[in-house]
Amino acid sequence: MSTLLQTSLPGIELVARGKVRDVYAIGTDKLLMVATDRISAFDCVLSSPIPDKGRVLTQLSLFWFEFLKDLVPNHLLTADVSEYPAELRAFADQLEGRSMLVRRAEMVPIECVARGYLSGSGWKEYKAGGTVCGIALPAGLLESSQLPEPIYTPAAKAQTGHDENISFETAAGMAGLDVVTRLRDLTLAIYRKASDYARTRGIILADTKFEFGFIGDTLTLGDEVLTPDSSRFWPADQYQPGGAQPSFDKQFVRDYLETLTWNKTPPAPALPDDVAAKTAAKYREAYEKLTGKSL
């Protein structure tokens, strides 16, 4: 296993350093996206890396881009470092297995969330008023219940803090009714196709979020896709509605942090080695179950 907390690519223009990804401009029409091993919890980036996390996120996104290519175009050009521009190849030790060269898109400022099960912020809203993002749901659902049909619940992208759930009408006011209708239909189509496949691999895809942008006039799937950072994956053989489910994500990190007296503001505490190792194992397990391959 390897770790990379932050990239250093002298001479290459850094345009963004997010919670997980470092993004570089390559000319005017391409971006280099590098998934580090940073992990965030409670909206704070921790100082401790999760070994190979960035490789899992990248390789799983590549798997799904290929799986979904007949349904939706994506921004990927190549993830083969030998095909990168010459100025990038000197940094192969940082880029191999955890980076993608992509086409630059004009991103739509809306997180496109598909929910097939009642969890997270959706469960909190449902308990309060029987709705999720203003969508009325049947009475009597439990935490983690499967919904009668998957629903589209957009969110406004936040530069810091949590994205904010918004109604379809609010999203339409931000991006236009035609665009948001296309986003909804595409989001639900991708969710259904991916969810059906994940079930064959023993995994429930409870919910997930996508980001889309325009390359020219083409609505294009971008960023990461169907990873443990952007989705709730539950083991199907342990599914039991009525409470929270075991999942393939950073729950070990959250559980550990909840035992501390930390006030959930930066700087975040470091993680014990065993918590980081257990979290890394969950990410790898998700990759191996979904793809049938070892990382």
Overall pLDDT score = 94
The CATH class of the largest domain is Alpha Beta
How many separate helices?
A: 8
Alpha-carbon distance between the termini? Answer: 10 Å
Sheet with most strands: 8 strands, antiparallel
Q: Give, in order, the helices and strands.
A: EEEEEHEHHEEEHEEEEEHHEEEHH
Low-confidence stretches: none
User: Which class best fits the helix and strand makeup?
Assistant: alpha+beta
Overall shape: globular
Tell me how many strands there are.
17
Integer tally of domains: 2
Characterization of this structure:
Helix 1 runs parallel beside helix 8 and helix 5 packs across helix 6. A hairpin with a 2-residue loop joins strand 15 and strand 16. The mean pLDDT is 94. The protein is α+β, with helices and mostly antiparallel strands and 295 residues long. It contains 8 helices and 17 strands. The protein folds into 2 domains: 104 residues, Phosphorylase Kinase, domain 1, CATH 3.30.200.20; 132 residues, D-amino Acid Aminotransferase, Chain A, domain 1 (2-Layer Sandwich).
Explain briefly what this protein structure is.
By secondary structure, the protein is an alpha+beta fold. It has helices spanning 53-68, 86-89, 92-95, 120-129, 168-175, 177-200, 251-258, 273-291; strands spanning 13-17, 21-26, 30-35, 40-41, 44-45, 76-78, 99-103, 106-107, 110-117, 131-132, 135-136, 146-152, 155-156, 164-165, 203-215, 218-222, 231-235.
